[in-house]
Amino acid sequence: MRRVPRERGGWWHAYVCPAHGVELDHGDLLGGVFPEGGARCAYGCRVDDEAVRGAWLVLSHQAWARHVRVLAHRGERAEAVARLVEYAGLYAELATGRHGEAQDWMLRGRLFHQALTDAIWAVNIGHAVITLAEDSTEGLAGVLPLLDALERAALDARSVLTGQDLLASNYTAWLNAAGAAAGRGAAAVRGRAWDGAGRWLEGEHGLYAHLRVAVAEDGWEWEGSTYYHGFVLRAALLALRGADPAALPPDVVDVLAGMTDALAAIATPGGILPALHDGPYRRAPLALEWLELVALAQQLVPSPALEAVAGRARAELGGADDGLDRELDGWFAGPPLPNRPAPGAVTVFPDTGYAVLRHAGVHALLDFGPHGGSHGHRDKLSLYLYGDSTAWQPDPGQVPYAHAGFRGLYASSRAHPAFRVDDGEQAECAGRLLGSDATSVTAEVTEAYEGVRAVRRVVLGDGHLVDLLTVEAGPERSPVAQLRPGVTLDVQVRPSGELHTTWYGDEVLHGRHTHSPGTTVRPVSRPGPGPADDPQRVRTHVDLTARAERVTFASVYQAASAAPAVTGVELDDAGVLTVSLADGRSAAYRTEG
Question: What rounded mean pLDDT belongs to the chain?
Fold first, then answer.
């Protein structure tokens, strides 16, 4: 039996197993009743407390809002209208003021702890009404108090944010999207033209103003998080329903196109979007969000590179996507703008501090930019490695935020394929780009540890990728280069002193690792947690640990499908790495170009 839950929701990030750090099983979100015996964890736990119940209510209410939107699209009018009227009554009963149980740091919502959660819910409610009203307004008068209340709540919350000079907050994008959806829905029910563009899109605190301050010149949302970047872009695209792409302000189109380009650049050919900084590593609702984003973006600023992202999302959902593409078809009033160009072999985002290198089956991403605010990680000079469909060495993502222990772990330097010194954590800091060209990128960081300079140079070779990490730490210091696989890793020390690694998955990666001559480096392998979708999944972590004032850690990576095969690597005293190839040739690479 399906029914709408009758209680206010809490904070969805509390829906996490306290013992194992995994998101709990959702159960039947449209059943309206918390799982009997407690929410189940993948390891057999059953969790039942006030925070977890409140989190489940968030998930249930959000599922219902999306379900109502789908019902409206499918033409199941009677059911959709009945549920909207039911929610109008429920909202009037429950959301009489700001939520008193929200944490102090939260922008308080009404139906949920956070105003952001209210806004996400309101967007789906508003668009369900808009869709129904395109056919008829019959039965929708009873929803008007809800729509008016949602628009007022969005305006009130946005006023609090902008009063704190937080126009760039990702919350602002969703509050504007919620105000626009609720306002447009109410206007449609009343049979009037919508007059809210000045308030929600064009005004001093509207969507356009938000995008102009929240997105860097290189196209990234300022936090540098894949998830929150897509989060803001999706809100913007939802808010622009019915707009003619050709009539949008040119600078806003440029921002939206740049945001789309950023996702296309980091996406692998198989559709993996690296989970940079805070954001889930993998979850079904996330796949649905990416599918929705791509379906909308392709109608405004189409990018062929994002089709693989949509395909991967569909595969993860296993067909449970509610026909999202068909539902969103015709979202804008005019044809899309011209296709975006495909990314090249090397793409650098100098403001946000990412570089993407694609070559011979290896998709590498170097992280050197600003910390990223509250969603940043201590991950400077991390090097992430992907195949088309395999996350060999990924950014591990993040657990639901309420698990403080695991959240701290996945934000730490220890969890990333970065560098450390003296077994300590990097400071929150920014690196800088030293140079880039058609085949290489070099970046440095000088503030991660006091008195330490680190430089990482990544070069595209002939069928291989070269990684040169140099750490100048001073006397009596212990620099460490870290390998953090997301897959099964085989590690072998060879008589030559080289370390060989094999990274398994849909594609296989081979690594050869060496270091400065005359320096002792201990390749210590130990069990460690895998990516954040399951902290209990064990992977082999490798710490290449030196005791040296200055050391270069040199690695050469090659996809098993690439040629010519790498047969040897040697680093000399002058900092030149020689890579020997199976066809008898060799190539030389300097540590800093």
Answer: 96
